[in-house]
UniProtKB/TrEMBL annotation:
<feature type="domain" description="HTH tetR-type">
    <location>
        <begin position="15"/>
        <end position="75"/>
    </location>
</feature>
<keyword id="KW-0804">Transcription</keyword>
<dbReference type="Pfam" id="PF00440">
    <property type="entry name" value="TetR_N"/>
</dbReference>
<dbReference type="InterPro" id="IPR001647">
    <property type="entry name" value="HTH_TetR"/>
</dbReference>
<dbReference type="InterPro" id="IPR009057">
    <property type="entry name" value="Homeodomain-like_sf"/>
</dbReference>
<keyword id="KW-0238">DNA-binding</keyword>
<keyword id="KW-0805">Transcription regulation</keyword>
<protein>
    <submittedName>
        <fullName>TetR/AcrR family transcriptional regulator C-terminal domain-containing protein</fullName>
    </submittedName>
</protein>
<dbReference type="Pfam" id="PF14246">
    <property type="entry name" value="TetR_C_7"/>
</dbReference>
<dbReference type="InterPro" id="IPR039536">
    <property type="entry name" value="TetR_C_Proteobacteria"/>
</dbReference>
<feature type="DNA-binding region" description="H-T-H motif">
    <location>
        <begin position="38"/>
        <end position="57"/>
    </location>
</feature>
<dbReference type="InterPro" id="IPR036271">
    <property type="entry name" value="Tet_transcr_reg_TetR-rel_C_sf"/>
</dbReference>
<dbReference type="InterPro" id="IPR050109">
    <property type="entry name" value="HTH-type_TetR-like_transc_reg"/>
</dbReference>
Length: 207
């Protein structure tokens, strides 16, 4: 392995190692759940050490969240056009978020969080507070920009984003975890459109 001065791996090698660790962690979490997945086994599968995994991700909980976010980032396309109406941008991003979260792997990851939250409250806290999920980032940016421009009435864009997220995701995710049939594409789009329209009705500017 080529290295930089001081023995540090080059950026490309560091990125490859991170991807390898995430792939090994994804396989372990999906197979064994959170509590039974072993960081030692994940490190061995990635060809590195347990210490390296912790140095890179900080904790098992944060590694789990990063695996989830990596899966989600793969399922998001380019950001919506800045010139599009607020409603259209929110529908586009929310539809991508719903499609991403209803992917079978993400349904399993979310069910792991729900099933093990009581034993591992830090995992649940990180999942609830994490802001790097692309859907959250993009919805928050759209709402904040619209509020700043006076297009909607909103004093707390993050709170509004979390409300919209719950409107879009909660019921379909619960149904998926319970084993309901896959939600058809047209039903997903209608669900998202209705959720965004109800949300927007509550944020209309008084101007």
């Amino acid at each position: 392995m080529r290295s930089r001065r001081g023995g540090r791996p080059e950026a490309a090698e560091t990125a490859r190692l991170g991807g390898t660790i995430l792939a090994a962690a994804e396989a372990a979490f999906l197979k064994f759940g959170f509590s039974k997945a072993s960081i030692q086994a994940i490190a061995a599968a990635a060809g590195t050490s347990k210490q390296t995994v912790f140095a890179r991700f900080g904790s098992k909980e944060r590694l789990f969240i990063e695996v989830s976010n990596a899966l989600l980032r793969e399922r998001f396309s380019a950001e919506p056009s800045r010139g599009a109406p607020v409603r259209d941008k929110l529908i586009e991003v929310a539809a991508q978020a719903l499609d991403a979260m209803l992917d079978p792997k993400m349904v399993m990851m979310f069910s792991i969080i729900m099933g093990e939250a009581k034993r591992f409250p830090e995992l649940a806290r990180l999942a609830d507070e994490d802001s790097t999920f692309p859907g959250r980032e993009r919805m928050l940016a759209i709402i904040a920009e619209a509020a700043a421009a006076g297009e909607v009435r909103c004093t707390d864009p993050r709170r509004a984003m979390l409300m919209l997220q719950d409107m879009v995701l909660s019921s379909p995710l619960r149904a998926a975890i319970a084993g309901a049939d896959d939600m058809p594409a047209d039903a997903r789009r209608n669900w998202v459109t209705d959720a965004v329209d109800i949300f927007m009705d509550g944020l209309r500017s008084s101007n």
